[in-house]
Amino acid sequence: MKKEIREDVFIPVGSVTVEGHLGLPDKADSIVIFSHGSGSSRFSPRNKYVADVLNEQNIATLLVDLLTTKEDLNYASRFDINLLTQRLVGVSKWVAEQPVFKNFQIGYFGASTGAASALRAAATLEERVKAVVSRGGRPDLAMQVLPFVKAPTLLIIGSLDDQVIELNQEAYDQLRCKKEMMIVEGASHLFEEPGKLQEVAVLAADWFKKYLVNTDSYLDKAGIVLKN
Domain with 107 in it: what CATH number? Predict the structure, then answer.
């Protein structure tokens, strides 16, 4: 019988402890850490949906609140990208130190402002982060470090999210890593339209399977092994 672990975790980062929810399929060899947007949390139904899709593909997920409950009451803290980046780096190091995640590849999924902290953390950790996906993100808030991101990065934006499309294009131009920008037709910022979040989840899963699950090779649609 296939075993899958789903449990809350408490992660010490500096002087605080942050809370997260772990989804660990039995056959997983990689993990995606979620960096939520401002005002969101590990209980975000949109991110939980994406995490469930990744779990079905044998990718572990960690939905984590980078702020404590008290810190989140301070509205300004939600937009403190430097603090959020430090926390995400700390969480990533904690994951790497856990025996259960030995030899796991680490990736990031960032939503809204969470995409900025994900990209900044990826630039800080360099080769230790293998892939990044941004959903309706604000990568422009990490503009200065984008040329230093080494992880293959996918930017997903809704076609109705005009301003964010422009900001993503500006950020995309600064990225020097393997990259792609996908615009989901008929989707707004939160991808609330029927079927649109499912499209996001499929795009994210494909990206992580290509660059995270097996970084040496991957199977294309014809089943041929291609070297990266």
Answer: 3.40.50.1820
Strands 179-184 and 129-135: unpaired
Domain that holds residue 86: 4-227
Assigned token pair, 212: 């995270």
Residue 81 in contact with residue 113, Cβ under 8 Å? yes
Kindly report the pTM of this predicted structure: 0.89
Which tokens is 2 given?
């296939």
pLDDT tens profile 80-90: 899 999 999 99
For residue 200, what are the contacts with CB-CB under 8 A and spacing of at least 6? 50, 135, 156, 184, 187, 191
Q: What is the pLDDT of residues 5-62, one digit of tens each?
A: 899 999 999 899 999 999 999 999 999 999 986 656 676 888 999 999 999 999 999 9
- Please give the C-alpha separations between residue 26 and each of 20, 109, 138, 147, in angstroms, as whole numbers: 19, 21, 33, 36
Cα dihedral sign for 164, 20, 58, 107? positive
Distance, in Å, from the CA atom of 149 to the CA atom of 179, rounded to the nearest integer, reads 10
Residue listed under structure tokens 């360099």 = 126
Of the candidates 113, 134, 146, the one whose C-alpha atom is nearest the C-alpha of residue 207 is 134
Number of domains the chain contains: 1
Q: What does the DSSP 8-state code read for residue 189? A: T
| Collapsed DSSP state (helix, strand, coil) of residue 66 | coil
Distance CA 158, CA 153 (A): 17
